[in-house]
């Protein structure tokens, strides 16, 4: 019986392969820092306009105008309002959060609002900020106003079922990276934000 040549053994297939495929992790946070402050505000406006029984939604004022502590308002069928501040900041501490609520309460919208949202790009996970969110929630509840302060993580989570908004503001590659190729494929030939711009 002939003995196999050592040279041929080198080219033989392996007798075992790695059983686990490589891990390809998806990003968990959209790159809000890449948006201009205007586009972050536009994104918040679009999210707010799609919320519940909103009759009308608009951005309030323009740069340099006194805006009474709000950037966006939405009018509900009951005549009350959801007011929103959009803050594309790299960091946002407890004092800034308290100041934002103070500014809102000094304006005329506080008497008409049933809801205030402070949407912040930066993480709000620190204990100091979380404690301040709870203090401001109680303060606003006493006035009949529901308060929430979603940060970048929470805004990303809210956008997971809105791939068109991700497509418009971040591009098709981010839809695929965050939600998968199958979801990106459902968007078909529509222009993403980059192509539209």
Keywords:
15% strand; 197 residues; alpha/beta; 5-stranded mixed beta sheet
Brief summary of the model shown:
The chain has helices spanning 6-10, 37-49, 94-106, 127-141, 152-159, 163-170, 172-179, 181-185, 193-196, and strands spanning 54-59, 72-76, 81-87, 113-120, 146-148.
Strand order within the widest beta sheet: 1-2-3-4-5
- Low-confidence stretches are none
Individual helix count:
9
- Rounded to the nearest angstrom, the radius of gyration is 24 Å
Derived structural class? alpha/beta
In whole angstroms, the N-to-C terminal distance is: 72 Å
Based on Cα principal axes, name the global outline: elongated
Per-chain topology:
Blueprint: H1 6-10, H2 37-49, E1 54-59, E2 72-76, E3 81-87, H3 94-106, E4 113-120, H4 127-141, E5 146-148, H5 152-159, H6 163-170, H7 172-179, H8 181-185, H9 193-196
Parallel strand pairs: 3-4, 4-5
Antiparallel strand pairs: 1-2, 2-3
Description:
The chain is α/β, with parallel strands linked by helices and 197 residues long. The protein has nine helices and five strands. The chain has helices spanning 6-10, 37-49, 94-106, 127-141, 152-159, 163-170, 172-179, 181-185, 193-196, and strands spanning 54-59, 72-76, 81-87, 113-120, 146-148. The protein has a five-stranded mixed beta sheet with strand order 1-2-3-4-5. Strand 3 (81-87), helix 3 and strand 4 (113-120) form a beta-alpha-beta unit. Helix 3 packs parallel to helix 4 (127-141). It is elongated and about 95 Å long. The protein starts with 5 loop residues before the first helix and ends with a helix. The model has no long low-confidence stretch (mean pLDDT 90).
């Amino acid at each position: 019986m002939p003995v196999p040549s050592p040279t041929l053994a080198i080219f033989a297939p392996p007798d075992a392969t790695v059983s686990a495929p490589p891990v390809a992790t998806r990003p968990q946070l959209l790159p809000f820092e890449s948006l201009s402050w205007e586009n972050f505000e536009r994104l918040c406006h679009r999210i707010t306009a799609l919320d519940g029984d909103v009759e009308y939604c608009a951005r309030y004022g323009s740069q340099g105008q006194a805006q009474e502590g709000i950037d966006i308002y939405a009018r509900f069928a009951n005549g009350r309002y959801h007011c929103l501040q959009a803050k594309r900041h790299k960091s946002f501490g407890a004092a800034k959060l308290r100041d934002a609520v103070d500014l809102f309460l000094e304006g005329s919208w506080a008497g008409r609002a049933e809801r205030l949202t402070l949407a912040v790009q930066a993480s709000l996970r620190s204990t100091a900020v979380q404690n301040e969110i709870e203090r401001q929630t109680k303060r606003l509840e006493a006035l009949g106003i529901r308060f929430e302060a979603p940060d970048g993580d929470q805004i990303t989570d809210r956008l997971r079922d809105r791939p068109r908004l991700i497509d418009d503001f971040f591009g098709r590659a981010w839809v695929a990276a965050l939600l998968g190729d199958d979801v990106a494929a459902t968007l078909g030939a529509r222009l993403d934000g980059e192509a539209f711009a």
